[in-house]
Amino acid sequence: MCDSENIQLRTVEHSIPIDILNDLLTRFLIFVPESAKQNLIRICFQIELAHWFYLDFYVNNDPKLKSCTIYEFAAHVFQHIPFLQGESHKLNEILAEWKEYKQSVPTYGAIIVSEGMSHVLLVQSYWAKSSWGFPKGKVNEEEDPAHCAVREVLEETGFDISNYIDPNEFLESIINDQLVRLYIVRNVPLNTKFEPKTRCEIKACTWFLINDLPNNKKDSTPKVKMGVSPNSFFMVLPFVKRLKQICNHNGSVTKRLRRKSASISEGECNPSKNKSIILNKKSENDDIKHIKKRQEKNTPKQLCTKRKLFPENQRPIEQFCAPSWLNFRFDKTAILECMP
Predict the structure, then answer these.
(1) What letters, b where the CB count within 10 A reaches 16 and e where it falls short, cover 275-288?
(2) What CATH topology corresponds to 103-286?
(3) What's the rounded Cα separation, in Å, for the pair 197 and 277?
(4) Mean pLDDT lowest for which of 17-31, 179-193, 268-282?
(5) In this structure, is the dihedral angle defined by the CA atoms of residues 197, 201, 203 and 206, taken in order, positive or negative?
(6) How far lies 33's CA from each of 40, 45, 49, 310, 327, in Å?
(7) Span 3-101: which CATH code?
(8) Which pTM value belongs to this model?
């Protein structure tokens, strides 16, 4: 790494108080097993969780604190933790590899359609304010795809689709080597109130007329009717034509299409390279096998997803700990006295 990058690493614009940094790292990194410390990709997932916690529960509640990027936060972490200090000079490379790995984790969500099949619900994130997409998220280890979709939709919209979802009815695409599956959820009232449960992730949940969505990136319909650029819908473009086909057939889904896209920003698949495959009623087990096969190909080591990352039977040697955690004790006598 060149000298300028070393200077950038040492002098990141943001400064996190040491006591707060200690608390965050105690929460999310103190129990990382020794074997996992050799896998920096897994460590980056824990750093991401700590970063989210910092933004949600520290920055939002203290006006003196400033938000920071994942790079700035990771720079603090790599400089502060002894077993990471020796890798701090490769921070850019490590984060780039981690972001590439994240793209291989399958995502599941829902296409929420209104009564009458006229509108579809889209969400807008804080970090991509000019774009809209379907509520979805990455799957946890050994998590059922439909359960992942229910959980992610609940987190991003506050709406529980568990009574609406049919595990056998969905649209999916393989986009940039990442499986994206969206379950069809119908007949949701237009007056439903959506309140995201996650902080600083979803800015808005809005109904859009399905007929006003662009069929491709050059379709000017949303610009004319809503004053919104078709590029704002690049995350939904791979699904629009099939969604309109479903709505035009009164919501009947008689087949499922798996489409492979060269790039999500292209909005549509190149017919000369990527052919649509019609799938009949196929068991969920076959789909799960397909997902696991892709994951094993991309990750020869133990599968790491965004939440459950480390074996529970391994506990590390503590190298540091926030004072508030070191001083924490259970009063066993008091607890026993309260028991009947």
Answers:
(1) eeeeeeeeeeeebe
(2) Nucleoside Triphosphate Pyrophosphohydrolase (3.90.79)
(3) 36
(4) 268-282
(5) negative
(6) 12, 14, 17, 7, 22
(7) 1.10.10.1050
(8) 0.59
